[in-house]
């Protein structure tokens, strides 16, 4: 939970660089994926036939309507923000690597996200900033991994409390 400090000060966050150890995982939540949102996302951003309709998908290797991989990433990002980042002292990311869409996400699937710290280190060039390498993983309701990615995350270190 985000708390606020004295008037004019920055909000106090719950999670800082020091709060995630190597090997530690954090669950970020679940949600059901609807047919309507799959088609809406595809119509706007990835209008391939297997993301737009059952009829279009029938002629593809997947055989039925499924979410775009980019939609799957966006869904995970929403879970991540709601379940962690909006209460963390995150400073952004220079990018993500090794993204894999391992299984399709279908209408009415319930997806669950989590991430695990692979490594971490303070940045020598930026006092008060640490770097996490994290593996993100999304599973469906059958506990099948549908997507993974690795990312570098910049995090603020916990502020040192001073006494007045």
Main attributes?
disordered N terminus, 164 residues, 4 helices, Thiol Ester Dehydrase, Chain A, 5 strands, alpha+beta, five-stranded antiparallel sheet, 31% strand
Quick synopsis:
This protein has 164 residues and is an alpha+beta fold. It has four helices and five strands; from the N terminus they run βααααββββ.
Shape: elongated
Question: What is the second-level CATH architecture of the domain at 18-33 and 68-156?
Answer: Roll
Note the total helix count.
Answer: 4
The structural class is alpha+beta
The total strand number stands at: 5
CATH topology of the domain at 18-33 and 68-156: Thiol Ester Dehydrase, Chain A
CATH class of the domain at 18-33 and 68-156: Alpha Beta
Strand % is 25-35%
What characterizes the major β-sheet?
5 strands, antiparallel
In sequence order, what are the helices and strands, one letter per element? EHHHHEEEE
Radius of gyration over C-alpha positions, nearest whole angstrom: 19 Å
- The spatial strand order of the largest sheet comes to 1-3-4-5-2
Helix content: 10-25%
What is the terminal-to-terminal distance?
25 Å
The pLDDT mean sits at 92
| CATH level 4 superfamily of the domain at 18-33 and 68-156 | Hotdog Thioesterase
Q: Which regions are unreliable across 5 or more consecutive residues at pLDDT < 50? A: 1-6
């Amino acid at each position: 939970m985000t708390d606020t400090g004295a008037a004019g000060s920055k909000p106090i966050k719950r999670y800082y660089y020091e709060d995630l150890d190597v090997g530690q995982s954090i669950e970020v939540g679940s949600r059901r994926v609807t047919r309507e949102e799959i088609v809406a996302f595809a119509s706007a951003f990835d209008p391939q036939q297997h993301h737009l309709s059952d009829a279009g998908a029938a002629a593809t290797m997947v055989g039925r309507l499924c979410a775009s991989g980019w939609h799957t990433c966006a869904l995970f990002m929403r879970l991540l923000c709601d379940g962690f980042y909006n209460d963390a002292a995150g400073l952004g990311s220079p990018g993500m690597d090794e993204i894999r869409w391992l299984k399709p996400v279908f209408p009415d699937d319930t997806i669950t996200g989590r991430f695990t710290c692979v490594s971490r280190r303070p940045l020598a060039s930026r006092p008060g900033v640490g770097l996490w390498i994290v593996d993100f993983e999304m599973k469906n309701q059958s506990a099948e991994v549908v997507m993974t990615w690795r990312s570098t995350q910049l995090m603020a270190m916990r502020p040192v409390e001073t006494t007045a």
